[in-house]
Each structure stands twice: as C-alpha cells, then as structure tokens.
Write a structure and sequence with these properties.
This protein is of the alpha/beta class. It is about 35% helix and about 25% strand. It has helices spanning about 5-10, 60-65, 80-95, 135-150, 165-180, 205-215, 230-240, 280-295, 300-310, 325-330, and strands at about 20, 25-35, 45-55, 70-80, 95-105, 110-115, 120-125, 155-160, 185, 200, 245-250, 255-260, 265. It has a nine-stranded mixed beta sheet with strand order 5-4-1-8-9-10-11-12-13, sandwiched between helices.
Length: about 325
C-alpha cells in the first residue's frame, strides 16, 4: 500500500460511527518487584508498587476504536458493584458512549487481574461467573440494539464466552446488519458455538478456528498457506459462517485472509519485540473494522490490523495504538 492510499484510508477513520457489542470486563494490573521466593511455597513474593485499571474484553475493543474516532459506543452488561462503577467511569472518561450498557444488581462485573513483576506477567486471576441473559434482559438488549445500530456505520462483536451473547441475539445482529447495509465484524468464541452467518468478516485466532471448525489442530508449517489442516478449517468456517472475509490471526506468523474465489493471502507479522499479547487481538479487530468501514479492501484492512497488533504486543499491559504509531509503522522496514 503506497503512502497516499494509506493516508486516504486512515483519514476516513474519524468519520466512522462504531458500535461494539460483547462481554465487558475490567482489567486490573498489579505492578511490583520480586526480591525473594516465598518460604511457604516455591512461588515469588511480589512487593506491590502500583495498580492500574483499564477497560477489558469488548470494552477494550471500544477503547481501541476510540483512539481513531470520537463516535464510539459500547453495549453489554455489568454489575452495580464498585468494579462496575470503575469500568463505567473509565469508559465515560475515554469519551465512549455507554448508554447501551445495562447495569444489573444480580450481575458481578468481570475482572481480570494481572500481576506484573520485572516486566513479566507472574499470574492472572479471573473473577467471573458465566451468566446468560434472562428473557427480560434479552428483550431490553434487542431494544437497545435497534437504537444503537441506527446510529452506527460499523458493528463489532467481541465474544469472550461469558454469556452475554446468545444465538437469538447473534441472529438478530447479523440479520439487522445485512438489512441495514452495516459493516459487521466478529471475534468469535469457539466454546459458545454461535453461528455468525453473512457477517462482513469473522476474525478467529488459529486455535479458535480449529475448534470452531471441528478440525484437529496441526503443528503448523513454515508457510501457513501450505498448512492443509488450517486450510481445511478455513474452508469449513467459510461454509458455516459465509462471511465475505475470514481473517485468521496466527501469532508470530501474522495473519491469513480468506475470501471466496481468491487464494489465501498471508500477511507476515510486523512485531519486532513481544512484551505482552494482552489485548493485541482487540487492537487488530478495531483497526480491521475501521479499515473496512473506510472502504479499504479486505487485504488493505488486514495489513493495517497486522501492523497495529505488531505495535500493541511491543507494549506492556492492555494498550491502544494511536494513528501516529500506525502511520509510523508503515515507514519502518
């Protein structure tokens, strides 16, 4: 992609109105130092020096989108607990529209706590319970969705398998997006087995693709386009979901893009240093969607997403990527 084309696509990001739907979480980072091993068990003793909090899950996808466009909204459910209060404050402080976020006193806000020492994650602690929407909550979600979708150019679904998304809601999202001509991208969760028929694009990672397709994972090959098991998984997913594009992220091997009638397109990773993969998939999903909404081809949007995720893994913690960093990423060798 030449510089003029890059500038043209990225310049369109700010005009897009994006709605992010999915499982909302709070990411907590506990930073500290390790100076000794515990006498109670062979584990490090972390002396805490600071704590920080960020929107997580689908909320982190919205946070990444917000770096590029002011018209960012998020939809999901959180509790009325203190952690829910903190997450809502973080989203509102970032300028993200939270009017479609439902607060339920019977729901415990999901929290993922990462303990970091010497720039490395020591352990992650998850506080969550899988919850499915009640019939009343589901009806309110559909009403919120109708309103929110009318005001959006693109919809992102981020399924973390925590129970907010159901097949009826998935069917409604896909049907409404098609009828209204909206860009719809989905980051699926294999354990929910939800079908996302006729989405603009679906973006699983490698293991998710194998799981969702019911194919035994392969050991991989040096060239992903020669990985027959991966190609078979992609073929099954294209038949199952019928997306315009299927983008499979491959970690250190980059990404593999599938479109009907075209050969698989491999995009090698651009990451130089990998400090933390937390949220890198969220960054890729946000930028990929914004690229599509700004009329980039699927290949161009995937290249943008690949560059963005390469930048994200070079940072520590749940981070975002700025327009300046993204543009600079294309000038580096």
């Amino acid at each position: 992609m030449d510089s003029a084309r890059l500038q043209h696509i990225v310049a369109g990001f700010a005009a897009q109105r994006v709605l992010v739907i999915g499982d909302l979480m709070l990411d907590e980072f506990v930073w500290g130092k390790v100076s000794r091993i515990s006498p109670e068990a062979p584990v490090p003793v972390v002396k805490v020096t600071s704590e920080s909090y960020y929107p997580g899950g689908a909320a982190n996808v919205a946070r990444n989108v917000r770096e590029f466009t002011a018209s960012t909204a998020v939809m999901g459910i959180i509790g009325t607990d203190a952690r829910g209060d903190r997450l809502l404050r973080l989203l509102e402080a970032a300028g993200i529209d939270t009017s479609a976020v439902e607060r339920d006193p019977g729901f415990a806000t999901i929290v993922k706590t990462r303990i970091i020492a010497r720039n490395q994650q020591v352990v992650r602690v998850d506080r969550e319970s899988e919850t499915h929407l009640t019939e009343e909550q589901g009806q309110r979600a559909l009403q919120q969705l109708d309103r929110a979708m009318r005001e959006a150019d693109a919809i992102i679904v981020a399924d973390y398998g925590k129970g907010y998304l159901s097949q009826p809601l998935a069917d409604y999202i896909c049907k409404a997006a098609c009828e209204q001509g909206k860009i719809l991208t989905v980051d699926p969760h294999p354990h929910t087995s939800l079908r996302w028929r006729n989405a603009t694009a679906v973006k699983p990672n490698r293991l998710e693709a194998f799981s969702a397709a019911g194919v035994t994972p392969s050991d991989g090959t040096e060239q992903p386009v020669n990985d027959q098991a991966l190609l078979e998984a992609a073929r099954r997913l294209q038949s199952l979901w019928n997306p315009k594009s299927l983008l499979i992220t491959l970690g250190e091997q980059g990404m593999l893009l599938f479109e009907a009638g075209a050969a698989p397109y491999h995009i090698p990773t651009r990451a130089r240093d990998v400090f933390d993969v937390s949220g890198a998939g969220d960054t890729a999903l946000a930028v990929f969607t914004l690229g599509l909404a700004s009329r980039a081809t699927s290949g161009e949007a995937a290249d943008l997403a690949n560059r963005a995720s390469g930048i994200a893994v070079g940072k520590l913690g749940t981070v975002t990527v700025t327009i300046g960093e993204l543009l600079a990423g294309f000038t580096e060798p």
